[in-house]
Amino acid sequence: MTEPATPRRTPLDATHRELGAAMTDFAGWEMPLRYGSEREEHRAVREHVGLFDLSHMGEITVHGPAAGELLDHALVGHISAVAPGRARYTMVCDADGGILDDLIVYRTAGDTFLVVANAANAQVVLDALRERAAGFDAEVRDDREAYALLAVQGPRAVELLSGLTGVELAAVKYYAGVPGTVAGVSAMIARTGYTGEDGFELFVAPQDAPALWTALMDARVTGPEGTPAGPVPCGLSCRDTLRLEAGMPLYGHELTRQTSPFEAGLGRVVRFDKPGDFVGRAALEAAARRAEAEPPRRLVGLVCDGRRVPRAGHPVVNAEGTVVGEVTSGAPSPTLGRPIAMAYVDAAHAEPAPADASGVAVDVRGTRESCAVVALPFYRRQR
User: Fold this and answer.
1) Do the bridges between strand 232-233 and strand 50-53 make them parallel or antiparallel, or are there none, so unpaired?
2) Domain check: are 231 and 379 in the same one?
3) Contacts by 275-281, CB closer than 8 A, 24 or more apart
4) pTM of the entire structure?
5) How far is CA 123 from CA 59, 194, 292, in A?
6) Is residue 103 part of a domain?
7) Could you give the dihedral angle defined by the CA atoms of residues 212, 213, 214 and 218, in that order, rounded to the nearest 10 degrees?
């Protein structure tokens, strides 16, 4: 019998353990789930600033004269049109239109792109890019060992980083990545995020991650009570509730090989107007036509009346008890103070409506929890 692989550890593993983090195996990595109260970590990001270790993400460099054309062929987006220093959210799909992963692609130079994949799918994405690179003058390089990734998220993120870098952060646009130094450490400073808040991701050499984490934790900004405070270390648990409130999809939940971008409400990332063919084009054109004519199901938000929390896989039922959908993600919302969920439901039940009028409920282990159907996201930050 094959022994299970030992989970990998990030360059900050010792730091997390010194902080008393509860660790968990996530996508083959030992990662901090929480350091104390996940609710307090969540609120720190919404109200102040939080610090995450995201070094489990998968980095792949695509370089060469035809790197842009390769990515146009391999992915659904028009990547060759991305300007140097900018980034784009996109997807890699199978020939049948199913989603293999959602990605962020940074153009770090004229003929160099950094593809950032989800940890669980990094090898799948790497294999797909290498297979699809045949005939293109471009190299696909596995750079997962070349980077550690820290994320600073929250309304005080700019204030926190401004004291540690000479980069003019106000000039760094959303979905951009620029070179610079942070606390003396060379980094690519990106402004994307997965929490619904403003913030930055710092791509650094693995050996520099511990010193940078310490410098960020030692920095002080105006705290919630008006007194100086540092960032709060945050784990995967609050990252999940933050992205759920922000209506951001998670691969393996809202996005799967059995789901097209159009079913997920993300058809905008598919660029049929780009030059040349791309993998999955014919299937995605058919999916787009179905979605426009009569979508069989739609991704919606649910806000529950009661206290029971919907979880992935729980059935969504109508007033007669007929199953009309399935929950993909659910959790208590610290911001709303109510259980929330994302779910795929039949189109006939997808229009926003209060709980007493929607006729929709989630079957939570045999108990029906009435839900309001709402448009996503549940939470949108004030800019």
Assistant:
1) parallel
2) no
3) 275/72, 276/69, 276/72, 276/73, 277/73, 278/72, 278/73, 278/74, 278/75, 278/76, 279/73, 279/74, 279/92, 279/93, 279/94, 279/95, 279/132, 280/76, 280/93, 280/94, 280/95, 280/96, 280/97
4) 0.96
5) 10, 21, 33
6) yes
7) 100
CA–CA distances in Å: residue 13 to residues 4, 17, 56, 236: 20, 6, 11, 14
In a domain, 250, yes or no: no
CATH number for the domain spanning 366: value is 2.40.30.110
96's tokens: 């049948």
104 occurs within a structural domain: yes
Tell whether 44 and 118 lie within a shared domain.
Answer: no
Shared domain check, 320 and 173? no
Domain limits for position 63: 56-140+260-295
For 256-288, give the DSSP string: -TT--TTTTT-GGG--TTSSS--TTHHHHHHHH
Bond prior to 334 in cis (omega within 30° of 0): no
201 is in an annotated binding site: yes
Q: Are 125 and 103 in contact (CB under 8 A)?
A: yes
Domain count, the chain: 3
What tens-digit pLDDT sequence spans the chain (383 residues)? 445 578 999 999 999 999 999 999 999 999 999 999 999 999 999 999 999 999 999 999 999 999 999 999 999 999 999 999 999 999 999 999 999 999 999 999 999 999 999 999 999 999 999 999 999 999 999 999 999 999 999 999 999 999 999 999 999 999 999 999 999 999 999 999 999 999 999 999 999 999 999 999 999 998 777 888 999 999 999 999 999 999 999 999 999 999 999 999 999 999 999 999 999 999 999 999 998 887 789 999 999 999 999 999 999 999 999 999 999 999 999 999 999 999 999 999 999 999 999 999 999 999 999 999 999 999 999 86
Answer whether residue 254 is part of any domain: no
Do residues 165 and 213 both lie within one domain? yes
Neighbours of 311 (CB within 10 A): 16
Q: Are residues 152 and 22 in the same domain?
A: yes
